[in-house]
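User: Hey, quick favor. My workstation is busy. Could you predict this chain's structure for me?
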Amino acid sequence: MLILDESEKFDIKGMLQKNTISYDIKMIMEVNKNPSTSDMETYNPKTFTTEDIEKIVSSYPLSEKIGMGVMFITEALNKSAEEAVFHLVALNMGTKQVLVHERFSEVPQGFGVGNFWAGAIYKIVKGMKKKGYKTMKAKY
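Assistant: No problem, here it is.
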């Protein structure tokens, strides 16, 4: 919700170089209710592969969605290593085909738990807005 509440700071529209975008996070909010945090804790860090990302996306209930969707999928929030790892994913919501998949690792920053981890997303958005979008556009 922080990204939506502070949409000027977390300039997803600017990151994607779009004049308008719409936010629809109902499905993600529902999906995020299900996992148990005990299933997420590990001492053996895992790096998501493209196949892992495709499996995650294929599990999303997108039957009523059309068009392109963009989301961040969290791989790791590791406070002791001071590392937050996110995957930026763009997908065809009708087919669940992953069109863009990029992995980002950033040092979190900020005060409070939510702001601390959101600081890493802020850095990703800012970097993409400056030069990353052009690089990804050329790649894909």
